[in-house]
Amino acid sequence: MAAEPTLAPPPAFRLPRWAAPAAFTLVLVLAYLLLRGSGTLPHDDDAPPFTAITEMREWVDAHKNDSPLFLYFVNYVRLFIGGLFVLLQTSLHGLGWAGLIGVMGALGWLAGGWRIGVLAMASLAACGVLGVWTLTVDTLALVGASVLLSLAIGLPLGVWAGRSPRLRRALGPVLDFMQIMPTFAYLAPMVLFFQIGAPAGVAATMIYSIPPAIRITALAIEQVSPTAVEASASLGATPRQTLTKVYLPLARSTMGLAINQTIMMALSMVVIANLINSPGLGSDIIKGLSRENVGLMLPAGLAIVLIGIALDRTTMAASRQRFRPSRVPYAVVAGLAGIGLTFVLPAEWPWVLRTAQPVNEAVRWAERSWFEVTDAIKEAVSLYLLNPLEGVLTSAPWWLVAVALLALAWRIGGVRPAVTVAVCVAAIVLLALWEHSMVTLAMVIVAVAATLAVGVSLGILAARSARFSALQRPLLDAAQTLPAFVYLLPALALFGATRFTAIFASVIYAVPPVVRLVEEGIRNVPPTVVEAALSAGSTPRQLLWKVQLPMARKAILLAANQGIVMTLAMVVLGALVGGGALGYDVVSGFSQRTDFGMGFAAGVAIVLLGIMLDRITQGADRRPPPLRRKSL
Fold first, then answer.
1. Is the Cα dihedral 404, 413, 561, 163 positive or negative?
2. CA 594 to chain centre
3. What are the tens digits of pLDDT across the range 586-611?
4. Which residues touch 574 (CB under 8 Å, ≥6 apart)?
5. What Rg value do the Cα atoms of the chain yield, rounded?
6. Is the distance from CB of 446 to CB of 381 less than 8 angstroms?
7. Overall pTM > 0.90
8. Phi and psi dihedrals of 486, rounded to 5?
9. 10 Å Cβ neighbour count for 557?
10. What is residue 622's predicted lDDT score, i.e. its pLDDT?
11. More confident residue, 215 or 187
12. 3-state SS of 333-369?
């Protein structure tokens, strides 16, 4: 007798993947509605952490002449840095404007030929025409001192890290931390140890610009062909000979990029260093921002752009091209001619183009003509995005916001990012800067959303249209050469001094790298995969959403990460144009001695926000994509 067939048990009911996050979000919303206005941490200018840090600074100031740390180390470092800056400043001013232009042209000619030489000379001469020659020379001296110190430390460390995986792993978290830190955060400790002035500015700029020198040099050494290294060792070369005859020559091009990026980072930092009384072009920019005077800011901003273009093109040409002895005579003639003209031409720059009044008149005309459009955009973003988000973050109980951030970090990145977020949140609470941190976070979220919307859209268009990519590439190149402060100029001219001004400036500052990363990620999708999708009948829209964007996930997440870090840095700079919150606390701490504790704590809080947001996005990059997680 045949056995009766048994019925298979019915499949177990499973909740959809979105059910748990949706339920948790609903609980958070209900908790906020019930507890709104309670458990908040309002800002207090006289909070105990601020007072303690201010007292610590006063103690440090009082013991600088009897503390062994200062007597035998810090003071000597400050004197050395100050001496190096004064030496460069005196030398550059001593060359005279004709001599310095001639030397700059000679260096450009040696690096890349007569075109680069003419570009370098024209860029420097234009700074004189704009009426900021003395400030330009001071800025070059500050950049020169900072870059020399950065390369003296960064290149050897980079070479060592490139040959030592253990050192590379040890330096990784430190460099990550340094690159996450917004530029403002470097100023407070420098003031504490080196006081205000050029030495503190050089030290802050040096520390800010060291990470690319180390990272890119290590990458250059690491990428040297192992076959070439083994061949050198088999021929009996010593480690030192292998380094000088194999590693360094083969890594020359990439190490040139390290020098280039170090110079660009230093150039963007020296302007901010003016907040601690460093000399240079930053003084006119800071004054113009504080007075809403675009005409005062514009010559200094253009001069920084011109210096950046000249230095960028010269260093990149030197790294890409081989040294040509045939260029030496022409370069020597150009340099000597410039120095010779110094003794003939007037010491002061002979002719200056006065632009302040027409520029301010043009700005006032633009404000009157475009007021309805710019005001409508500003009010719409503030009314429908910024104000509601800021209201939720500042009126919710602090622990509820903390729980939401922890859940987001755990859901996106896992346990480690959640632990990092917990530590950052706890530190912000202990620093008594919760409310201002939430205001800054609201500005960052709005700015990042706009940055990704614009950047991803332009990146997709560039990846799918070679013509569009070619048209926007020069604009992206120019945009990534500009220091961060320059982006405040059009924002201030269009929108005045408001929080939205900081958001607008941060968007145009952060969009270029997002566009590049998204375009590169989509272009790197294997052609065979694209051809297979097209042969299966996919439409262009299906190809984008079902194939290209999922396979470019890592590049898009990296773009989001870079957008967050750059936006945070720029939103903080927006304190100078009405941004407020943590950025204003930092500026106030440097300008008023009694607020130093608040400024220092705000700098730390900015770093904590940056680390928190960076770890969340990096955690998303490390997790497997949804399809892969479903199959595991």
1. positive
2. 29
3. 777 766 767 788 888 888 888 888 88
4. 443, 488, 499, 501, 502, 503, 505, 506, 583
5. 27
6. yes
7. no
8. -65, -30
9. 20
10. 57
11. 215
12. HHHHHHHHHHCCCCCCCCCCCCCHHHHHHHHHHHHHH
